[in-house]
Amino acid sequence: MKKFRNKTGIIILAAGNSSRLGRPKQLLQYKESTLLKNSIYEALKVENSFIIIVTGSDHDLIEKELNSPEITFSFNSNWETGMSSSIVKGISELLLLNPDCEQCIMAVCDQPFVTSSVFESLIFESSKRGKGIVASAYSETLGTPVLFHKKYFQELLELKGQEGAKKLLKNYANDVVSVLFEKGNIDIDTEEDYLQLISDLSDKGSK
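That's the NTP transferase domain-containing protein sequence above. Prediction below.
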């Protein structure tokens, strides 16, 4: 098994079956690549980090498409029970790979405008402010990507069902700071979302 000494684990949640879209959103074409590959590409730029991809539905297809020694796949056989099972799987894998990991970043595969600078801003803000949770801010809410200090790993491991990590943001509001993530509100859930994204990129490219 691979072992890492890196300080930050980046966990990309990519286990859902894209029921509203009707095909795996992870493999949608985007920027001469795919949505998931784009998230991975940006995460790989972050120094002193290692990357875990939590797969579930369509895992064979996704892992075949993304065969790379630089990332670790972790298959969540319970993906249908909700996002919490993927968070638990990701943290469990992280602790296997690096029990001394200082912090992790939870990210998703369908935010097309995520960049390495977003990840790096989370890390920088946590170090600067001494806070245990740093979330991305957009559309008057806090969301992914979100950084958690290792002191929260046990509570992340205890999440159940449909509840996501936002529960911790509410419970520990005094330990939360945010960084602005422009266009973080744009994610791909439906065919309309995807067509709008492609249309916007096409319009931008023609100007």
